[in-house]
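Margin note: ligand = coenzyme A.
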Amino acid sequence: MSKIIAIYPGTFDPITKGHVDIIERSSRLFDKIIIAVGENSKKKTIFTKEARVELAKKILVNYANVEISFFSGLLVDFAQKNNATVIIRGLRAVSDFEYEFQMADVNRHLNSNIETIFLTPTEQYSYISSSMVREIAELGGDILPFVHEEVAIALKKLYR
Ligand code: COA
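Resulting structure:
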């Protein structure tokens, strides 16, 4: 039987425990997961692409079927180049729905061989976002409930 490769794309600025929760679930469902660290043209990131990839690599080192790559250009092209047939997206709340629905539609229009699948994170992480974590870090709050220690250290350095 052929192996199913799935892509989990995002800006990951930075990667949070909510993202890792989705990755953990996905790693049990698919043969291989590629974490595709990308750029959203509407977002200005605080971490460089190299730093975002490095942090994800450190945190996900124990997941044997998870790979981390940077990508630019169209997501569906990156997926096809890597023989991925599934795009994974997390749905945290109803507010995510419209944007995610639109993105899934656009990606299906661009390449109908690639399916988008939505996973919901555990309730504990359903309200986390990277921008919220950045704001708490900038204001000196405790971010350890939301991110791994490596990320907390990197954020502290940045906002020192
Ligand atoms: N845990 C924590 N946060 C989560 C989450 C989870 N489980 N699921 C979603 N989020 C948050 C992210 O932290 C992020 O928060 P922020 O906005 O505060 O930074 C937000 O939800 C969604 O961002 P992200 O998942 O990073 O995706 P994005 O909307 O920035 O899209 C790409 C990034 C790279 C996937 C998208 O822009 C893309 O595909 N670009 C390539 C160009 C392309 O193909 N375009 C056509 C398709 S639209």
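Residues 9-11, 13, 16, 18-19, 22, 38, 40, 43, 74-75, 90, 92, 103, 106-107, 121, 125, 128-131 surround coenzyme A (CB under 6 Å).
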